[in-house]
Specification:
Layout: H1 2-6, H2 12-44, H3 49-98, H4 101-107, H5 109-134, H6 136-151, H7 153-156, H8 159-200, H9 202-207, H10 211-237, H11 239-264, H12 269-311, E1 333-340, E2 350-357, E3 362-367, H13 373-380, E4 388-393, E5 396-397, H14 403-408, E6 410-413, E7 422-423, H15 424-429, H16 437-446, H17 450-453, E8 463-464, H18 473-485, E9 491-495, H19 503-516, E10 521-525, H20 529-532, E11 537-542, E12 545-550, H21 552-558, H22 560-569, H23 572-575
Parallel strand pairs: 3-10, 3-11, 6-9, 9-10
Antiparallel strand pairs: 1-2, 1-4, 4-5, 7-8, 11-12
Helix pairs in contact: 2-3, 2-6, 2-12, 3-5, 5-8, 5-12, 6-12, 8-10, 8-11, 8-12, 11-12, 16-18, 21-22
Length: 576
């Protein structure tokens, strides 16, 4: 848990101040029953009005001090917990940003979202309540016992019987509840996963008419969480009745035995009232403890879940010997006997792949589904680490290069076009403030964005709907391409980003790329043969193996797998 508590370190002095204020509050509240007994026994019993007024003013003063202390304690605890939660969320986000795709997949996206939001909120709430109650409850309980014995030790000895019952009851109930708190967080993960899948897949769900099926799936998951939640809260709800039962019996015993002492003159009425008041303080202290025991186990589970994220070393990070990639106007990419297997997979996704993509030339990659095309690009960007072989950029092994240098030299258009919240221009620039408006306009022109962007109300400053739902598939792909080429990187990766384009737009875009990106290294994954026929080099992948490599003409002559793809898509006239 040390990684989580590191984020609390900047606020430890604030926390100490808050604790000192809590102790002050406990002392003032413990002093009030003593003043009350003084008014009853020495003021009311003797008719001493002056003492009553003087002691009453003292009680008002102590109450005013208590009010100020409570206000300051609440303010400090809220500030500390909110700032700590802010820093912790930031730390989790930054840690996840360093994860490889393998790391992210090991946790699951839904779980990472829950840990960053729900779990942090649980810890924030627990910290705030702890600063107010964790110190207050024991101080009040111990202080009340001491003050009660100071008033009348013989009568207060009843507490030696009641307090062990309370401690045993609270401990037993809390121990029963802890396993359910752990289960609840896992079920919150599951609920978030089902909800996320339902929202992201809403089109598919409705297209297949499976809304009722998804409703049932959500209801089952929701009911499972609700059942566990009700069970744990039923257990926790037993704490307060147990405390009230024991303490009310204690007060009844105090009244019975206290009345005998009053009759014999060994106890005054004010002292009995003060002792009962201290018993009520003990009751409140144990109720506070029960609240602490109800939220601390859940917070402990959340801390452990967040600690798993913060303590996990990124599987891919800069080595201590990492060297910067030398600046060159172009870039040559070389794969040498690259083999890669996904975690848990029985067969390699790529097996002994070797090729060179030279600067100023286009390398196209084609193959059947699951042949390893996207995996090849993921390895180049070090989203995963190769098992065997090496990948080099300008002769430097990417394992020995800095991650920011590798990805800074690459413009990547993903297979599924991703559109972020913001305007067209903001999506193309994507936080890279060094990209000028002229570069944005150039990227739009090359990506064939200008026709539909100029038709928008505010042109490139038009805000796009979340997820780009107001754009067609082809428009989103062109926006993704524009984002990739805007910074003018030496290496461009296009992962099947032409599939949603019509043939005319596809041809115009490829023509613009060829004219504007002459000194770039292009790696294009495509399903359509027409998109890659004019590439300088075509790689044919089959089941993770390089089945062919060469130009279109060479592959038509020497590679049966390529010919099969071509004949399945083009007529004899088009091939000729």
């Amino acid at each position: 848990m040390k990684n989580v508590f590191l984020y609390f370190k900047p606020y430890r002095w604030w926390a100490l101040l808050s604790i000192s204020l809590v102790v002050t509050r406990a002392m003032t509240e413990l002093y009030l029953p003593n003043l009350m007994s003084k008014i009853v026994d020495r003021g009311i019993a003797t008719g001493n009005i002056e003492l009553i007024l003087r002691t009453g003013l003292a009680m008002l003063g102590v109450t005013a001090i208590t009010f100020v202390v409570i206000f300051c304690t609440s303010f400090l605890s809220s500030q500390i917990s909110a700032r700590f939660a802010r820093d912790l969320r930031k730390g989790i986000f930054e840690k996840v940003e360093t994860f490889s795709l393998e790391d992210v997949e090991s946790f699951g996206i839904a779980s990472l979202i829950t840990r960053t939001t729900n779990d942090v909120s649980q810890i924030q709430q627990a910290l705030m309540m702890s600063l107010r109650m964790v110190v207050m409850a024991p101080v009040m309980a111990v202080g009340s016992v001491i003050m009660a014995f100071w008033k009348n030790a013989r009568l207060s000895s009843i507490l030696f019987v009641s307090i062990p019952f309370l401690l045993f009851g609270v401990y037993f109930i809390t121990r029963k509840a802890i396993p359910f708190f752990r289960a609840m967080q896992d079920k919150v993960d599951r609920l978030n996963q089902v909800l996320r899948e339902n929202l992201t897949g809403i089109r598919v769900i409705r297209a297949f008419g499976k809304s009722d099926y998804e409703k049932r799936r959500f209801v089952e998951t929701n009911e499972d969480l609700t059942t566990t939640s009700l069970r744990v809260h039923r257990i926790v709800a037993l704490v307060t009745p147990v405390i009230m039962l024991v303490m009310n019996v204690t007060i009844l015993a105090l009244l019975v035995f206290g009345s005998f002492q009053i009759d014999t003159g060994t106890l005054q009425i004010g002292e009995l009232m003060a002792i009962i008041q201290y018993v009520l303080h003990i009751t409140n202290a144990f109720i506070m403890m029960s609240m602490v025991f109800s939220f601390l186990p859940r917070a402990e589970v959340s801390i452990r879940r967040i600690e798993e994220v913060l303590s996990r070393p990124a599987s891919i990070e800069n080595s201590e010997e990492a060297v910067p990639l030398p600046y060159q106007p172009g870039a040559t990419v070389t794969f040498e006997e690259v083999t890669f297997r996904y975690p848990g997979a029985s067969e390699p996704a790529l097996n002994h792949i070797s090729f060179t993509a030279e600067s100023g030339k286009t390398t196209a990659i084609i193959g059947s589904t699951a042949s390893g095309k996207t995996t090849l690009l993921n390895l180049l960007m070090r989203f995963y680490e190769v098992d065997q072989g090496s990948i080099m950029i300008n002769g430097v092994d990417i394992k020995k290069a800095k991650l920011e240098d590798i990805r800074g030299k690459i413009g990547y258009a993903t297979q599924k076009a991703v559109v972020f919240t913001g305007s067209v221009k903001e999506n193309i620039r994507f936080g890279r403030e060094e990209i000028t408006d002229a570069q944005v306009e150039r990227a739009m022109r090359i990506a064939q964005l200008e026709p539909f962007v100029n038709a928008m109300p505010q042109k490139a400053d038009t805000v796009i709907a979340q997820g780009g739902t107001d754009l067609s598939g082809g428009q989103r792909q062109r926006l993704s391409i524009a984002r990739a080429i805007a910074a003018d990187p030496p290496i461009l990766l296009f992962d099947d980003t032409f599939s949603a384009l019509d043939f005319k737009t596809d041809a115009k875009l490829r023509l613009a790329l060829r004219a504007e990106m002459r000194n770039k290294t292009l790696l294009i994954i495509a399903q359509r043969v027409s998109t890659i026929m004019d590439a300088d080099q075509i790689l044919v992948l089959k089941n993770g193996v390089l089945a062919g490599k060469g130009s279109h003409a060479q592959l038509m002559r020497d590679c049966p797998e390529y010919r099969e793809i071509v004949y399945s898509q083009l007529s004899e006239e088009e091939i000729a």
